[in-house]
Specification:
single chain, 34% helix, alpha/beta, globular, 5-stranded parallel sheet, binds flavin-adenine dinucleotide, FAD/NAD(P)-binding domain, Flavocytochrome C3, Chain A, domain 1
């Protein structure tokens, strides 16, 4: 049975890269609780393939900033972006000193790859399973530290907040809802892929962090900018396994059913154009051909190279009887990343006192309207570090403990799962790559029409997730309606 202290100095919601790196960077005299609603390693981080973009040489900072601005359609917060690029190298070194490995050549120099939007090779990686390696290293490092308690299968339902100061969290533990107190809470809950039928995201990505933060008044920003990744494996029975952009970075070419390499007709960077451009081109090209398949071709690359550089992708494709050494890989764009989220300042603080956000759940503004490949893991460590540094020097406030328990009642929630499927369908049909005001308004009406009982009597995890998903879907749709012209990943049909 999971035991929970009544109070900690810091509570971190999420055991992905953002949560675990924050925990590692906090002073050892702080008592830290890290919770995850699933297994500790079930996260988007664990699925990351391509790597982490990083610039060590100050002479190259400018080009990393410029590439990110171009890819983000200049909607980026340039000051925060400079912080991310300039502090990236020291945080990657910190990650390595915690025990995380990246691929190196025989002399021990980091091997660098390239992905969409990058004008040069600057992405450190561990084969095509970079995220798994990061989580392995960070979990092992956290387990070594006496001040960090890692708890799995604990679902945070709400934040406790009084007078604009966060006081702790409510969480489901041992089939009841308990309050656990801390004057510093870090939301590191990741993305929103669960709002869509087809996503590369892990099952935990049900937008909880944005919802629980916004419900107590934390501001959100850029909610209309949802990223769709151009190349997920197009096999209808699969949860859309990602074919990393690094595959195109290493020479992969997109082809239509006729075998034509069509990207040169859409963008000067061809297959390595920004993700929003490539996704749009794939849909347009497929439509032009009467909904035909689009493929990724690596058959011109050497067999040994493919097997060594992309072992995980190679094996996954083989399990679908696709031998990427000689066969084309059918691909399709699916939901992948959320640029928007809880609005933070340059040190990860939200507008609620004591409440921080970092990682995919946060909107620091670095990505603009379209995230550049491999900048997400970089953003997570740079701003997690800043969050930890701020908490380390902050005044310690002892929270007022008021214990309360509430039993879980599942009986009236049998429909939550069905409602979730309905919601995903609405978002996939009407709030996908191409948008129109009419369609967005219709989507809002459909969600209202679902008539979901959101009263507190439904308090299972599934019901809380549904409540969060509905809340965040509406935020996305309203932000999309408000932005009347195309920008980055927000594409108005016909523009
Ligand atoms: C397939 C895939 C490949 C990717 N490849 C790359 C790449 O190569 N490079 C790159 O930079 N980015 C990549 N990304 C994006 C990147 O991996 C993510 O943006 C990043 O890992 C997010 O980290 P995070 O710590 O914010 O969230 P996550 O790693 O998703 O962790 C979220 C944590 O929050 C917990 N949680 C959520 N809600 C609750 C709740 N209510 N209560 C308790 N716990 C909760 C979860 O259980 C989980 O532990 C990829 C993403 C995917 C899906």
């Amino acid at each position: 049975m999971t035991s929970m202290q009544p109070a900690y100095d810091v509570i971190i919601i999420g055991s992905g890269i953002a949560g675990l790196f924050t925990a590692m960077k906090l002073d050892s005299n702080k008592s830290v609780l890290v919770v995850s609603k699933d297994e500790l390693k079930c996260s988007n981080t664990n699925l990351a393939q391509g790597g982490v973009a990083v610039t060590f040489n100050p002479h190259d900072y400018n080009s990393h900033v410029e590439d990110t601005l171009k890819t983000g359609f200049n909607h980026n917060d340039e000051n925060r972006l400079k912080i991310m690029v300039e502090e990236g190298g020291s945080n990657i070194e910190a990650l390595m000193s915690m025990g995380v490995h990246f691929d190196c050549d025989a002399d021990g120099n980091l091997l660098l790859t390239k992905e969409g939007g990058h004008s040069k090779r600057r992405i450190v990686h561990y084969k095509d399973t970079t995220g798994q390696e990061i989580i392995r290293g960070l979990l092992e490092a956290c387990l070594e530290k006496d001040n960090i308690s890692l708890k799995d299968h604990i679902f945070v339902t709400d934040l406790i907040c009084e007078d604009d100061q966060v006081q702790g969290v409510k969480l489901i533990v041992n089939d009841r809802i308990e309050s656990v107190y801390a004057s510093k809470v870090v939301i590191a809950t990741g993305g929103v892929g669960g709002l869509y039928e087809h996503t590369t995201n892990a099952s935990i990505a049900t937008a909880d962090g944005i919802a629980i933060g916004a419900r107590i008044g934390a501001e959100v920003a850029d909610m209309e900018f949802v990223q769709f990744h151009p190349t997920a494996l197009n096999k209808k029975d699969d949860a859309h396994f990602l074919i990393s952009e690094a595959v195109r970075g290493e020479g992969g070419i997109l082809r239509n059913e006729a075998g034509e390499a069509f990207m040169e007709r859409y963008h000067p960077l061809k297959d390595l154009a920004p993700r929003s451009v490539v996704s749009k081109a794939i849909i347009e090209e497929s439509n032009k051909q009467g909904n035909q398949n689009i493929y990724l071709d690596v058959t011109h690359l050497p067999e040994d190279y493919i097997k060594n550089r992309f072992p995980n992708i190679y094996i996954k494709c083989l399990s679908y009887e696709i031998d990427m050494i000689k066969d084309l890989i059918p691909i399709v764009p699916v939901q992948h990343y959320m640029m928007g989220g809880l609005k933070t300042d340059a040190i990860g603080r939200t507008n609620i006192k004591g409440l921080y956000a970092c990682g995919e759940v946060a909107c620091t503004g670095v990505h603009g309207a379209n995230r550049m490949a491999s900048n997400s893991l970089l953003e997570a460590i740079v701003f997690a570090n800043r969050v930890a540094e701020d908490i380390n020097v902050a005044e310690v406030i002892v929270p007022d403990l008021k214990k309360s328990f509430e039993a879980i009642d599942d009986s009236s929630c049998i429909k939550s799962h069905t409602y979730k499927q309905q919601l995903k369908h609405i978002m996939s049909e009407h709030v996908f790559i191409f948008r129109s005001k009419h369609d967005l308004i219709y989507a809002l009406e459909l969600i209202e029409g679902m008539n979901v009982d959101l009263s507190k009597k439904c308090n299972s995890q599934e019901a809380f997730e549904l409540r969060n998903m509905i809340f965040v879907s509406k935020l996305i749709i309203k932000a999309a309606i408000a932005r009347e012209t195309s920008l980055g990943s927000h594409i108005i049909e016909g523009e």
